[in-house]
Automatic annotation (TrEMBL):
Organism: Rhamnella rubrinervis
Swiss-Prot/TrEMBL keywords: Oxidoreductase
TauD/TfdA-like domain segment(s): 35-322
Molecular function as annotated in GO: oxidoreductase activity
Coiled coil, from the record: none
InterPro entries in alphabetical order: AlphaKG_dependent_hydroxylases, TauD-like_sf, TauD/TfdA-like
Record's protein name: TauD/TfdA-like domain-containing protein
Name of a matching Pfam family: TauD
Amino acid sequence: MAESSLVEIQIPQQKLFNRIQFPAVVGPSPSSVPFTLSLFIKTIQTQKPFIQSVLHKSGAVLFRGFPVNTASHFNDVVEAFGYEELPYVGGAAPRNNVVGRVYTANESPPDQKIHFHHEMAQVPEYPTKLFFFCEIEPKSGGETPIVLSHIVYERMKERYPEFVERLEEHGLIYTRILGEEDDPSSPIGRGWQSTFLTKDKFVAEQRAAKLGVRLQWLDNGGVKTVMGPIPAIKYDESRQRKIWFNSMVAAYTGWKDSRNVPEKAITFGDGKPLPGDIVHDCSRILDEESIAFPWQKGDVLLVDNLAVLHSRGSFNPPRRVLASLCK
């Protein structure tokens, strides 16, 4: 009987960067026995070195053609990798726990685009790996575009060397006003109680302090959070290259709701405002270099959060994409 095995396959949306396909796409070998969920999980465990090498080379791996049908199945797949879970403390997106270590990806309305960002780049403790799972494929739109961070850094450094130099010197300050409760009408609508996993202001202050976040309580029960200065450019030790590790474009163009004004949400680390024309041009570069594939039911996407930024396109429901964060 043939053994179960994984092989790299191709989809039309991939791009080549330095002769490496982005993202890598992995499917069942044609010579494999038909995959069951338990066989897929066992194969992940036995072929993890192969998967790790593909992830390190490409930055993102799409698993397609495997029998992953429910949130519970997805949780089993995430567990099979053996990565430690990262609690979602300090993130901005409104999210609900579904099962185990699986959450909804973002509860914001479907007509809203979520701009490119590294997950939780605005706090010191961020996930190194992200999993996404398509439980219900979108009627239309709703892709999760991804882009290689070092490519963005290289293009920005070439076009705006002085701006990038200032970013490297000063970093960024992120400012966000949170209500008490979650606001699902906003892509950054997570209230302070779920952000810090408590209803106690003193406990919230303690947990914020551990993240390096300063809190200023407001009369309406909300709170102003100030994070930074925090580096906007990092060095990826494992790949030996600089990366564009920040949520600058997402904050400047998308942190908008009844409480927040995007232009005030992010500044240089010295408090000076960012040049809007450069931020918007960076957004164009992100779009130019990105790839977006239509989700198919059962798809699992593994993303190296240091190597890759991600976003979300607007969509026509139904769509259900779930996520899991790993240390």
